[in-house]
Structures are given as C-alpha cells and as structure tokens.
From TrEMBL:
This is HAD family hydrolase. Gene3D superfamilies: 3.30.1240.10, HAD superfamily/HAD-like. The keyword Cytoplasm does not apply. One of its GO terms (molecular function) is hydrolase activity. Keywords: Hydrolase. It is an enzyme of class 3 (hydrolase).
C-alpha cells in the first residue's frame, strides 16, 4: 500500500504505541486523531486492556469510537460503555485450564477479565489499582459471564520458564500472548487474536486489508501488522515487531504514530 493512498481504517495498539510512557496522549496526537475522524477514517484501538480500563480514553476515541479489547475478545463502544462481539472461554474451559495449571504449578495465581469486570484469586497481585467492582474469589468459581482473557502469575519463577510451562499445559486449548507485562501469562480462547477481531471489524464495514494501517509494539501485535495493508512498528517496539513491520516510525514518547500519519497523509488530511 502506497503511503499516499488514503486508508479507510487506522488500527492502533494503546500501551507502548499510542500512549506515552506516562499513559498520556499528547495534544498533537489528539489533533491528528480528530483529523482522521473528521474525514470519516475509522480509528480503532486494538488492545490487551479489558473494557474496564477504557472509559478514560473516550475523548481520544471520538464520538463514535470503538476499541477491540482483551487481545480480540470483544469490541467496546465508547458511546455506550457496552461490549459486543464477545468471544471467550466457557466456564468449563476455564475450570479445566485452571485445574491443570494449579496441579503443575502449585502457588500459581489467576485473574479473569470479563466484559462485566474482573475476578481475582485472593493471591493474585495486580500492578494496577483494583476497583471495588472486582470480585475476589477463585476464578473458577465465577459462573456469570464469558471470560475474555485468563491471566496467570507464578511468583519467583523466571518468565521464560513460566511461559514455557503454561504453553505446554494449555496446548491447543488457549492462545498464549505476550503484551509486555512482566511475569504475566495472558491467555485467550483458540482463534481469539487482535488480528482476527480487526479483520471481522474491517469486513463488517466493507474495508479490505489493503485499506488498513496498523500500529503496534509487542509480539501480540505482529499478526495484526501482517494482516493490515501497512503494518507499522513504533521505534520502541520489541525486536520481533521491528523485524515484522513494513515500516518503523518514532517511539511512543515521540508521537511516532501521529508523525507517521502526517508524513503519509498530511496533504490529503490538511494537517
């Protein structure tokens, strides 16, 4: 896809890509995103974040903004605060995975992210604030919602060893993704990825892959970057992402995404 061809959809990861290290969005990047919306170019956030972390980004998303959350498990509508197109684990699938992992890794702690909120094992330690809506109970005892993402931590075990064991135990029953959080194994149901969800969204709006630009920084973004007509890595991206991308722009702290859009589309967007 030539940089001067107007895309119909811009898809971007959030943490480490669109958001700066302090989790802010600069005025310049906000202005560029508004310019895209004003010209009816879809902007879709594609993130590992759960729906419960999305509301503070409503202004940047625009009036009709959407986010693909939990590594592709659902679509979040900023205007309504509701989730749709939910794909995840059944309760029986979660129970089987948790039982098998607890047997192999005594001391493992789980959390589950659902459209309605999170469930944390009593021993699960989160690096983010835990709101009053979070249920504290063994994750396999929560039956009331689809689990979009199953999380696991194993204190005291090196990441590489932990991820290898989890991958071997879950096998074909789950997809193990890495979005940059140290010591955190993130699992989605088979077939649930950022790329698959983005493709569904694009096709539902009559948009082809060649009409999509996608931005990312972590290995869980690679399938999305490869599917899009133009896959762009920010300068601070993981080495595997830098190698997989069609182009490399500036870092998240240097507004790389916004500068890449202006470089390629500025004259067309009057930016």
């Amino acid at each position: 896809m030539e940089p001067t061809v107007m895309p119909r959809l811009i898809a971007t990861d959030l943490d480490g890509t669109l958001l700066r290290s302090d989790l802010s969005i600069s005025p310049f990047t906000r202005r560029v995103l508004r310019g895209l919306e004003d010209r009816a170019i879809h902007v879709v956030f594609v993130t590992a974040r759960p729906p419960r972390w999305m509301a503070p980004l409503a202004e940047a998303a625009g009036g009709h903004g959407r986010a693909i959350c939990m590594n592709g498990a659902c679509v979040y509508e900023f205007a309504t605060g509701q989730s749709s197109h939910v794909f995840g684990f059944t309760h029986d699938q979660v129970a089987a995975l948790v039982t098998d992992l607890r047997a192999v890794l005594p001391g493992i702690a789980f959390a589950s992210e659902r459209p309605s909120g999170a469930v944390f094992d009593p021993s699960f330690v989160s690096s983010h604030p835990v709101g009053p809506e979070t249920l504290i109970q063994p994750v396999e005892t929560a039956h009331d919602d689809v689990v979009g993402k199953l999380l696991a931590r194993m204190p005291g075990m090196p990441d590489s060893q932990f991820f290898d064991i989890v991958d071997e135990v879950v096998a074909e029953r789950a997809l193990l993704a890495y979005s940059g959080a140290s010591g955190l194994a993130e699992m989605t149901a088979p077939g649930v990825t950022k790329a698959a969800a983005l493709e569904r969204f694009a096709l539902s709006h009559g948009i082809e892959a060649r009409e999509v630009w996608a931005f990312g920084d972590m290995p869980n973004d690679i399938p999305m970057l490869r599917w899009a007509g133009r896959g762009i890595a920010v300068g601070n991206a993981h080495p595997e992402v830098l190698n997989a991308a069609d182009a490399i722009t500036g870092s998240n702290d240097d507004d790389g995404l916004a500068h890449e859009i202006v470089r390629g589309l500025g004259p067309l967007l009057d930016l």
